[in-house]
Amino acid sequence: MDSIAETRVGAMLEARVMEPLVTADGKLMGRGVRRAPLPKFLLGIAPWVVLLGFGLYGAFLCLYRGLNQTNMDNRFAFGLWIYLDLTVIAFGAGAFFTGFLLYVLKKKELKAVINSAVVIGFVCYSGAVGILMIDVGQPLRAWFTFWHPNVHSMLTEVTFCITCYLTILAIEYVPLILKNRQLRKIPSLLVFEHELHKVMVVLAALGTFLSFFHQGSLGGLYGVMSARPFAFREAIGIWPSTFFLFILSAAAIGPSFILLTTKLAEKLSGKKLVRDEVPALLAKISGNILIVYVLAKAIDTLYWINFTSPGTGAEPMSFYSHKAFGPWVLTAEIVLFGLVPALLLRDGGKHLSLKWRVPAALLACAGVAVNRYVMTIQTQALPTLPFDQFLSYAPSWQETASFLLVLAYGVLVYALSFRYLNIFPEERELNS
Amino acid sequence: MHTAKKPTDGKNHRYGMVIDLDRCTGCGACMVACAVENNVPPGDPAANERTGISWLRVYRMNDGKPLPETRTAFVPVPCQQCGVSTPCLSVCPQNAVDIDQSSGIVGQIPVRCLGCRYCMAACPYHTRSFNWWDPVYPAEMRESLNPDVSTRTRGVVEKCNFCFHRLQQARAKAAAAGGKDEAPGEYVPACVEACPTSAFLFGDLDDPASDVAKAAKGEGTFRLLEKLGTDPKVIYRSAKPWVRQTAEGALPRNGKEEHRG
Q1: Cβ within 8 Å, pair A387-B260
Q2: DSSP codes of every residue in B82-122
Q3: Which chain B residues contact residue A131 at CB under 8 A?
Q4: What structural domains does chain A harbor?
Q5: Which chain B residues are Cβ-neighbours of A229 within 8 angstroms?
Q6: What is the pLDDT of residues B29-39, one digit of tens each?
């Protein structure tokens, strides 16, 4: 067969295979919005699909062969997964906090990003639950916590909240799917979607409460460990101070993360998705709460240095005497990743260029990632017994792959949602 | 842990041990006896000291001086059976950790354990082990497994319970004889029994007449991480000041950093 004939056959095949796909693809998109051609989109998500497959393989090994596939051990009982769970859930806080601001505090401007926030929240929470199921040694016993819960355990609180809130996020995600152009043609689904909207305010309020609680109980997880002096914090009421710090930090960076993902979506799609006042409002909210968080964190640290830690017989600065975790970690967390982005985000273009907004949001998110890293990894690396050693840990490739699975899953769900669902309601108007 | 029903309404005990560090030679007989008694499977070929199962670990510590002046001591660390604010107890989300009120022993219920390992993160003494592998017992070892101790499966946490099954046996024996309570000395954990230098003393810390209660109040005694307020029921003893000071954390650490991964 000569090359011309080959090209013709190829083109015919392409037409036969691709044409129906392209037509179906176009029909699934929202009216009046333009998306990249299907081949370009498929090419764009292909690496993430490969990563998803790689991650599935890593996760399968961990489930099938057991947690010996990881580099965790009896001393490093929590590793990469718990650290990333905490970080990802803090990033997902944008969902509950945006819902709270929109539905409870009536910040109407945020209607432009609420759908995107719900998708991000759903991805983060479902990803975290998924990885937790791999992380526990006996995933089939997960229901035991509901059957005979220890009401004094922070992990019980975490389990109840994460399950309930993920259910709420899933319910909040459903109307987005049902609004798809093709699904709207089915009358019963249209009615169902309409009915769901009626309960959305209640769900948003309930979700806000649950997620607040959940973020807090994740912080409490470490703060209650009275025998781990590095993590232990005094109680304010019935919860340790980390309970409140985790809520504050998550509420502070949630809007920043929504800002970042929106900017990224705008950059990748080459379209304006929200009005200028939306990122400005997100940045301002983020900056204001971050200031409060930095202040609270600084007070908490000072109290810990002067009272809590000495009370347990530990010299506070001895925790920062090991190579990887010098005092710079504390300084970086509070100043570089806390105070600096807080001031930049609050500035809102008054003194500094608006170009600082995205780097500031990045710094703020990195700050929470550092905080969760310190709480999870540094706590366990530090020896408690006087004759024990400082330990280090690096995740195995199976652990890393399982995390990449969540990352790829998140990117794919968001990419598909962006392509086929109306997650930025102002897009059509802004690009017409 | 299944609560061993006491044969009578006798008073509760507070079982504990005193370990004389000056007598410990670090031979590891206690570790071996513990593993055999409690059906701890042989380690997987890929396991190391941080992933293997050890209900009792003997640490080596030294005074930090260069050779040949170095002085060394060995510290056997079983579960410290914390009596107050037991760190592992309150954190377990599904009540898989339990304190037997009649003996003060902190037990683990592996069949209820989810394998979340929160208890391991919370324990400052690092005396809990996770089953990273499926337990595999060689054919010739199966005949010698202890029928009084359940084997555990992959993905659950386990730890020392002062050979609780031996307490149950002692109580059953006392009940069969029509006695009111287990006789002193009738209940002894395997590690105590195996120690060739009698470094371990075991008994009821609440019984002022017992050797262990007397030794616990003797000179040179201390408990690990006492300031944490967990009220451990394992008490250590040494006549050497440097041993006490090092084990109590009064001297700078001399351990090296250990890397893995």
Answers
A1: no
A2: --SS-HHHHH-TTS-EEEETTTTEEEE-GGG-----HHHHH
A3: none
A4: 50-423 (1.20.1630.10)
A5: 228
A6: 999 999 999 99
